[in-house]
Amino acid sequence: MTVEERSAIRREVRVGTYVEVVPFGRVVFTWGGEGGTEGASPVPPGSSTVEITLTPDGDGTIVRLMHRDLPEEARDKHLQGWELYLNRLAITASGGDPGPDPNEEAGKM
Questions:
Q1: What domains can be seen in the chain, in order of their start residue?
Q2: Exposed, middle or buried, 26 (CB in 10 Å: 0-12/13-18/19+)?
Q3: Higher pLDDT, residue 8 or 85
Q4: Are 43 and 71 in contact (CB under 8 A)?
Q5: Burial (CB count <10 Å: 0-12, 13-18, 19+), residue 3
Q6: From CA 26, how far away is CA 8, in angstroms rounded?
Q7: What is the mean pLDDT of the segment spanning 19-29?
């Protein structure tokens, strides 16, 4: 099974393959990009791995995300992206509205 995200604005495709899925506990998948208006992706498809673990914590859940094997030049951009979307996930999970996606409004998606 593969995961794919397309961006109409940058004409970029994010591609990955599920490596491990443990219902309600863990998801591991490869991650990378191809195409795009910014040139070749510094993270080619399959070259990095994302691991997400979910741990029950009282009435909530602790989400732990690790993104491995990123090239140095891609780390800051990915850190900013993961922080943005994990914060938006936390707002949504608590019943809030995170508002419009700032990357879509800025034409970055």
A1: 2-105 (3.30.530.20)
A2: middle
A3: 85
A4: yes
A5: middle
A6: 30
A7: 97
> How many DSSP H helices and E strands does the chain contain?
2, 5
Going through 23-94 in order, the beta strands assigned E by DSSP cover 26-35, 48-57, 60-68
CA distance 20 to 16: 12
Q: What confidence score (pLDDT) does residue 11 get?
A: 59
Q: What is the DSSP letter of 9?
A: T
Beta bridge partners of 40: none
Residues 6+ apart with CB under 8 A from 98: 87, 88, 91, 92
Amino acid at residue number 63: V
* pLDDT bracket for residue 2 (50, 70, 90): low
Region 11-16: mean pLDDT is 78
Residue 55 in this model has a pLDDT that exceeds 90: yes
